[in-house]
């Protein structure tokens, strides 16, 4: 039986990716699209400036956009994906959850809240049960689940593989982030062409905190964050999609490089419709991964690693993920599939 889903903020950059990824989904049937009051009442093709590299699905093009409030969305929607600006999502998502809706959100508000699961299905699926705590504390019938920031999600799978096999102590990471992460109008061409910008507001703090929550332990009541030190430096470069990162990791053990690569390659995936067959692809070629060549591996859902080398206290490596697929809409979609598999819908 199909699951009826909706998208909050469906006309935006991430909303459009949701529509693309939900087209022909085996379980989820797209049944409601919302946006701001300016878009509400218009057919989607008129409200949204479509910029994704596949055509708007025909039925979506003619769908009337709704207001973003619980009364405007049908009661029989089982799951809402949220790609609202976080300043809007912070109140709106709670209104929907209070009204009984389950929300899988990409927006950055509440990611660190003690009773909000921040999940990547392959890494910490058990954290999803924090929903029970959330429902007890907030008296909600619905639920709010988050995926991490796009730069954070890029490095977490290889770090989780290292932690499990050798123990993480300290992480230093530097990013080379694509312009799509800032949204269509986020960085002007005059700012970014022939250039690099060594600051992305709030991004370093997100990488340093969300990573420790994601890698933490859930005891059924609360999450104990991982105690590794994480330091991040974030940079914008003129690629379109795909965040590349250089990580330097101190480990508790002293493994061979080949064992590090094996631990990453063998890190298990999950059996969900949008998950890649293999979570981490490790390149031997030191010139890979590259954003243009590798961001679409596994339909944009695989994490690519390369340049694995030993250092005095551990290893260094490069990693890459598609920031608007694995780092945004695809991450929320996978969490939606996890919610479904775990009986939360
Ligand atoms: N761009 C990216 O690659 C990434 C973005 N994110 C995060 O995802 C979220 C969405 O980003 P993005 O898609 O780029 O943003 P956009 O600005 O492209 O889209 C925002 C969406 O929210 C709607 N919206 C705006 N204001 C309101 C309001 N007051 N009430 C109801 N709906 C409203 C817009 O509708 P309308 O069209 O009518 O204005 C639109 O549908 C943000 O939190 C962002 O930080 C995360 C990772 C990557
Ligand atoms: N800040 C990220 C994109 C983003 O919006 O992240 P978040 O989901 O944490 O708001 C980037 O510029 O690449």
Automatic annotation (TrEMBL):
Q: Which residues form the Semialdehyde dehydrogenase NAD-binding domain?
A: 4-131
Active-site residues, record numbering mapped to chain = 150, 243
Superkingdom, according to UniProt? Archaea
SUPFAM superfamilies hit by this protein: Glyceraldehyde-3-phosphate dehydrogenase-like, C-terminal domain, NAD(P)-binding Rossmann-fold domains
The UniProt entry's GO biological process terms, in alphabetical order, are: methionine biosynthetic process; threonine biosynthetic process
Q: Does the keyword NADP apply?
A: yes
Q: Name one GO molecular function term.
A: NADP binding
Q: Answer whether the UniProt record assigns the keyword Lipoprotein to this protein.
A: no
The protein's UniProt keywords, in alphabetical order, are:
NADP, Oxidoreductase
Q: Which is a Pfam family this sequence falls into?
A: Semialdhyde_dhC
Q: Which InterPro entries match?
A: ASADH-related, Asp_semi-ald_DH_pep-lack, NAD(P)-bd_dom_sf, Semialdehyde_DH_NAD-bd, Semialdhyde_DH_dimer_dom
Protein family per UniProt: Belongs to the aspartate-semialdehyde dehydrogenase family.
Name under which the protein is recorded: Aspartate-semialdehyde dehydrogenase
UniProt source species: Haloplanus vescus
């Amino acid at each position: 039986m199909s699951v009826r889903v909706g998208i909050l903020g469906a006309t935006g950059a991430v909303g459009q990716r949701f529509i693309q990824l939900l087209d022909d989904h085996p379980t989820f049937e797209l049944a409601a699209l919302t946006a701001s009051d300016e878009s509400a009442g218009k057919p989607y093709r008129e409200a949204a400036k479509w910029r994704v590299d596949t055509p708007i699905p025909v039925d979506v093009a003619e769908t009337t956009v709704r207001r973003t409030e619980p009364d405007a969305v049908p009661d029989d929607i089982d799951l809402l994906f949220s790609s609202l600006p976080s300043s809007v999502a912070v109140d709106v998502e709670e209104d929907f959850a209070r009204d009984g809706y389950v929300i899988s959100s990409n927006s950055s508000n509440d990611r660190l809240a003690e009773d909000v699961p921040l999940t990547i299905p392959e890494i910490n699926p058990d954290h999803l049960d924090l929903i029970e705590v959330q429902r007890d504390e907030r008296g909600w019938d619905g639920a709010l689940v988050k995926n991490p920031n796009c730069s954070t999600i890029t490095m977490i799978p290889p770090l989780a593989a290292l932690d499990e096999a050798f123990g993480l102590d300290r992480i230093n990471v530097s990013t080379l982030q694509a312009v799509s992460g800032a949204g269509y109008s986020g960085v002007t061409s005059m700012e970014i062409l022939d250039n690099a910008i060594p600051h992305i507001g709030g991004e370093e703090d997100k990488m340093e905190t969300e990573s420790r929550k994601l890698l933490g332990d859930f005891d059924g009541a609360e999450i104990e964050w991982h105690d590794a030190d994480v330091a991040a430096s974030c940079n914008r470069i003129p690629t379109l999609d795909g965040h590349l990162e250089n990580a330097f990791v101190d480990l508790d053990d002293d493994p061979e490089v080949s064992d590090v690569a094996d631990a990453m390659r063998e890190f298990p995936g999950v059996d969900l419709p949008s998950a890649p067959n293999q979570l981490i692809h490790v390149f031997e070629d030191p010139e890979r991964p590259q954003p243009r060549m590798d961001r679409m591996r596994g339909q944009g859902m695989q994490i690519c690693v390369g340049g694995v080398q030993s250092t005095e206290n551990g290893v260094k490596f490069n990693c890459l993920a598609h920031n608007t697929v694995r780092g945004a809409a695809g991450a929320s979609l996978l969490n939606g599939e996890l919610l479904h598999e775990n009986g939360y819908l």
